[in-house]
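Weekly sync, protein design subgroup
Attendees: M.S., D.O., the rotation student, P.L. (late)

Item 1: inverse folding check
M.S. brought a backbone from last month's batch and wanted to see whether the design step gives back something sensible before we order anything. D.O. pointed out we never logged the input encoding, so this time it goes straight into the notes. Structure tokens as presented (517 positions):
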């Protein structure tokens, strides 16, 4: 597999040297800018095209690129950190695939990529124009929605539309970008999310004998949920955290398929759960959960991590087949790795430590052999996953001091993660170059148009906050990289925009405002 796809692609796109060979002793003095999740799709509704199109912000993108070119004085690395393209929502192509794990074939994904590149030729040309200015360089890091960029034919379709000069725009075929000195490392981040991960990223994306692309279960979920509802509820995928949108829609959610599919949806729902109640802070240390004991909880491991008011908590405990499927899933160390089990245990304690009242028999669920309660101080679930990923990355990029990821659409200002006793890494999330909102803000916008309930999901995208996330990293006086979260603030009718600080109230609803690690 690697010889067929990866080696050929590496020669064509990024060369064959290893990260260790590329790491320099000193920083190169360049500014790095990270954006992500543009989700350029197959057409704009206002053009009579596809109602699933997410990207309507071409003018904002153009002026943003102009501004960072000015700031970087023509020596900027623009890293588009995954999901630049939306290749999952493609109503014109059946992509019936072969079973649940294999989706589009090479011909189908080629047609999808061609349609997206044609529809967004102007946006891709703007990216190419930025790349061609001075010593700028653009890096495309594949994400889960545009993993097909790893295929030479798809890459060529996109690169041709940019008209970028040789060497000025590259696709990072190993799924990771790093600075010249390896102090800054960035990736899309979907491999920390089991329902959207690939088995051997970035190599094993294609069944070469049958020419099918690997399809994470999250792709099926997006197609089942968003494809069926986005035409009616255009904001269903513009809410952060994304689990909140699913919860909001849960009472009428048309989850179909097998019991195994429903079990994986419950896992998705729990893994993206958000508990807003204040937590009574107690012990400052993190609990060390007994993972084997936690796995024996079976379906209770998932159900107890949901708020008592969540309808899926009742469904899990009341349906025998679903309980059995989740019991099996809890024992699966591949689909639910140990770090995710620990994150679920953290979530259980967060629910227990909140104001939620449970009387359904799950209130005494524990992830250890003792009944001693823990008060979880940190947002440990995601912290654990990021730290585990950093332990792995440091084996290749030992100088790493700044890590940027995306995928969640939820921008994160600088947070410190202690990889070990002597290594601390500054972590950022670039959010998304999209208009996003949280539920309270969306409900407020809906009230202005007398919309309540599910109708708030019909609020026009143009009414959402005009904020687009970006992380900017520059070398400090001693060469140490210094990062900051910023928001490009601009309406499509404005002549220009502004880079806002991460705590500006106009964009605060789309970042982890009070939740630094």
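Designed sequence read out in the meeting:
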């Amino acid at each position: 597999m690697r010889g067929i796809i990866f080696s050929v692609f590496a020669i064509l796109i990024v060369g064959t040297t290893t990260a260790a060979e590329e790491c320099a002793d000193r920083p190169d003095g360049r500014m790095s800018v990270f954006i992500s999740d543009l989700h350029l799709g197959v057409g704009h509704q206002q053009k009579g095209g596809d109602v699933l199109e997410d990207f309507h912000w071409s003018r904002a993108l153009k002026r943003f690129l102009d501004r960072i070119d000015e700031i970087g004085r023509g020596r900027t690395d623009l890293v588009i950190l995954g999901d630049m393209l939306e290749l999952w929502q493609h109503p014109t192509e059946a992509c019936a695939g072969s079973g649940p794990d294999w989706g589009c074939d090479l011909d189908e994904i080629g047609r999808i990529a061609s349609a997206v590149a044609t529809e967004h030729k102007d946006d891709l040309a703007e990216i190419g124009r930025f790349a061609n200015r001075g010593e700028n360089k653009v890096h495309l890091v594949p994400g889960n929605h545009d993993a097909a960029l790893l295929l030479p034919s798809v890459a060529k379709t996109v690169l041709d539309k940019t008209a970028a000069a040789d060497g000025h725009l590259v696709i990072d075929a190993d799924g990771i970008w790093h600075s010249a000195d390896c102090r800054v490392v960035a990736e899309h981040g979907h491999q920390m999310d089991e329902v959207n991960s690939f088995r051997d990223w970035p190599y094993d994306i294609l069944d070469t004998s049958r020419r099918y692309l690997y399809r994470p279960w999250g792709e099926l979920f997006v197609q089942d949920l968003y494809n069926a509802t986005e035409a009616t509820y255009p904001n269903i995928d513009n809410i952060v955290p994304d689990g909140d949108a699913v919860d909001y829609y849960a009472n009428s959610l048309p989850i179909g398929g097998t019991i195994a599919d429903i079990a994986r949806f419950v896992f998705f729902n729990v893994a993206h759960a958000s508990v807003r109640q204040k937590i009574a802070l107690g012990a400052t240390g993190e609990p060390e959960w007994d993972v084997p004991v936690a796995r024996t909880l079976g379906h209770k491991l998932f159900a107890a991590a949901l708020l008592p008011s969540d309808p899926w908590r009742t469904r899990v405990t009341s349906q025998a087949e679903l309980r059995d499927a989740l019991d099996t899933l809890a024992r699966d160390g591949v689909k639910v790795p140990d770090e995710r089990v620990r994150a679920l245990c953290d979530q259980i304690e967060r629910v227990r430590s909140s104001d939620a009242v449970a009387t359904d028999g799950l209130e005494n669920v524990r992830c250890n052999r003792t009944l001693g309660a823990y008060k979880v101080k940190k947002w440990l679930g995601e912290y654990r996953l990021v730290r585990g990923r950093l332990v792995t990355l440091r084996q290749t990029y030992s100088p790493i001091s700044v890590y940027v990821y995306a995928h969640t659409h939820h921008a994160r200002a600088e947070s410190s993660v202690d990889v070990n006793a002597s290594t601390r890494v500054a972590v950022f999330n670039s959010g998304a170059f999209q208009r996003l909102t949280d539920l309270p803000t969306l409900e407020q916008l809906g009230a202005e148009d007398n919309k309540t309930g599910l109708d708030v999901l019909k609020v026009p995208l143009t009414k959402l906050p005009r904020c687009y996330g970006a992380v900017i990293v520059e070398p400090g006086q001693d060469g140490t990289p210094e990062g900051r979260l910023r928001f490009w603030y601009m309406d499509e009718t404005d002549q220009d925009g502004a880079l806002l600080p991460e705590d500006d109230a106009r964009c605060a609803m789309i970042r982890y405002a009070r939740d630094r690690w």
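Discussion: The radius of gyration is 22 Å. Residues 5 and 125 are 27 Å apart (CA to CA).
Action: P.L. to compare against the previous round before Friday.
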